[in-house]
C-alpha cells in the first residue's frame, strides 16, 4: 500500500503503524494528521475512497465524521455563551418555548451538552423521511417526555443531540447550525469541514461501509444485543428512530442536511486543525474552554450501556478503561465518531490529533486503530 503525504522523521514509527492498517484486506481508505504546538508533524493518507477500490484516497478527500461533529456544535454554542446570546444554566425553554412541554421547563443548555437532559431518543417511531425534516424532528423533541429525571445521571444522545443543540444554535444565532459552525469555526480557521455539504463537494466524499467479521469488544456486543432483541428500548430508539439513521450515510440527503451530531464531513486535517485552535485559544476564552473540558458526567451511560465521561459536547479520557482512552494523557479531550474516525487534543503535549476512515469498525467508544496510532505518537514524543 502506497502511503501519501508527509511525516517528520521523528514520527517514522507512526507512518509504519498507519501503513500496517492496510495489512487488513478490508481496510479501504484512511487519513491521519498530527499537530504539536500548532505545527503539522504528520499528514498521511492512503487507500481507496470509493466502494470498488478504483478511486484513490486524495489529499482533499472528505468523509462523514459522525459524532466527531458534536464538539464543533458545542464550541459554537459556547461562543454564543461568551457573546451573551446563550446561558449555560438558563432554561432552554426561554429561547424555545415549545420545549417546556412534558416536564422539560427547567432543562438547561448545560444538561443538553453533557447528555444529562434525558432526551437521547424519541419513543414514538417516526417515518424514515422524518430524518431529513428539521421541523418534524425538533417538534417531536419539544413534545417528548424525558426518559429519566433531567440532571440525574447521563445517557449519550447519538442523534437527538444534533436537533437539540442545532435548534438552540438556530434560534440564538439566526442561521442554520451548519452555517453557524462554518462561519464561526471552519471559515476563520480555513478548515475543510462542512455540516451540510454542497452538492458540488460530493465527488470528494469517500464511500463509507462496515468492515465484516469483527464483532468488537464486550461493550459493542452488549449494545448490539439490546438493539437486536429490544426494539422499543431507549438505546435502540436512540440509534434507530427514525429507522433511516443507520442506513443513510452515503445518501445525498444525509450529506446535505445540517445535523451537527452526526453528519459533519471533513478530513483528518480539519479535525487536527480544530483541536489545535482550541488549545491555542483561537476558538474559546480560557474560562469557556475549561467549561468544555471539565467533567460534567461520569459513570454508567444509560444509552451506551458502558462507562462514559463527558465535558460539554466532548468525551473525556478514562485512562483505566481500554475502550475509553485516547491512549495519550489523562487530560485528553475530544470525540470519537461511529466506526473509527476521531479528533482530540492532549493539552499536556500541545497535541492535536485527527484520524478518519471509511471502513467502519464495530466499537462503541474508541477504535483500536486510532488508539494504536495515538499511543505511537505519544511514544515518538517521548
UniProtKB/TrEMBL annotation:
InterPro entries: Beta-lactam-related, Beta-lactam/transpept-like, Beta-lactamase/esterase. The keyword Hydrolase applies. It holds the Pfam family Beta-lactamase. Keywords: Hydrolase. Transmembrane segments: none annotated. GO terms for molecular function: hydrolase activity. It comes from the Bacteria. Residues 19-374 form the Beta-lactamase-related domain. The keyword Hydrolase applies. PANTHER family: BETA-LACTAMASE-RELATED, BETA-LACTAMASE-RELATED DOMAIN-CONTAINING PROTEIN. This is Class A beta-lactamase-related serine hydrolase.
